[in-house]
Amino acid sequence: MEKRIYPTAIESVESPEPWPKTDFNNAREAVDALKALYVRNTKFLRDSFMSLSDTGFIDRRFRAYYPEISITTNSYSEIDSRQAYGHVPNPGQFATTISRPDLFESYLIEQLKLIMRNHGVPVTIGESRTPIPLHFAFLEGTYVDGSIADKIKRPIRDIFDVPDLEGTDDHIANGTLELQPEDTRPLAPFTAQRVDYSLHRLSHYTATSPHHFQNFVLFTNYQFYVDEFCAHARDCMAKGGERYTAFIEPGNVMTPAGESSPLTGAVPPRLPQMPAYHLVKPDHGGITMINIGVGPSNAKTITDHVAVLRPHAWLMLGHCAGLRNTQALGDYVLAHAYVREDHVLDDDLPVWVPIPPLAEIQVALQEAVAEVTGLTGYDLKRIMRTGTVATIDNRNWELRDQRGPVQRLSQSRAIALDMESATIAANGFRFRVPYGTLLCVSDKPLHGELKLPGMASDFYKRQVAQHLTIGMRAVEKLAAMSPEKLHSRKLRSFSETAFQ
Q: What is the pLDDT of residue 495?
């Protein structure tokens, strides 16, 4: 094998001209500056990489930095205590790195407006000291010819920064970030590199662009719900949209309002691991549905990444095992507490942390069930129970000694069992994303009541459509609320970031 000989050691670093730190009292102008800086710095990295294809030899390193937002406050002025975000907890210097300000434009403008209003201080836009990894500098959907890298006579990491997993973590969100008194405090729950990592993972897992994700997310563990969602969405588009502007499927296949078939995108040769479907409204106000499959690992994986988009709410719609003899197949379960035996979040959120019900979500779901089923008050109790949902990581728990699990389920007063709901709710709590769960009883293993083949088909035809309608009705109710009301103070810890 031919031995690769590298040139002499790199002694210089080439970067764009320093970007001067500038104060802004207008949120939109501040975000425009973020966008200009981000475009310039990522273009520098792309152009530098492409230029190496000419000779392949290089005697310098190329580096560009993420944009940064920072503020400084000197007052303990009292802030409106009704709002969960938009303010810092005490005087000091706060900052966050930013990626993809084009994608987060509306979000950033809203967060900066609140900070300026609540503290009466300008925001400062400039360059951080965190390098942008080359991998995250390429435009979404870019194809990089491998032959270019082959021509470069050095390892890529010798001449460009690459993703650094040591700086890609959830210490801020987990509340485990250790700082010295003189350190700058975080302004947002995620750093730029953590955001970039998740944006790339979202594209991979869902086969849709992060740009298409909406602020209200429905998770499901059955394809039947996706089929019903797609049928509803296509019918909606054919009828003119009914307030929605487009329907987007894996492969970024887009059907605009007023059309009966897609006009853009390419259907992937096979579905991704967790396909996503988006009913789009202006300013990301629509609904995203994701089939996460079965299991708490998938539930954690997808919510870890969706969380960086800062949605207004996510809900779990799926099937569960009913644990009470008084339940019937097709009954609904509205979770107001969770038993967490999923274990995938044990290192991030200890099991002793309670996951509280959120009043806004609970009310929206209960009202939606009543409106769709036509039942109210005491009659609603015939088809829906509110109680504890247990989530486990062993799908075949029934095959083991049942005395331990059954005793724990009874002591916890659990009324339903599944493999995803507590994980999704716990990650919502962890990442300050309002969450809720409405499940449908599909079997009763403790009571020997399982669906026969013919019963299963009838059950799915009858219940999935109604269940999905309930979920979408609940989303409509949540979307009608202001973000300030929806994002609960229950999800905020002692010392929180100003950004929602």
A: 83
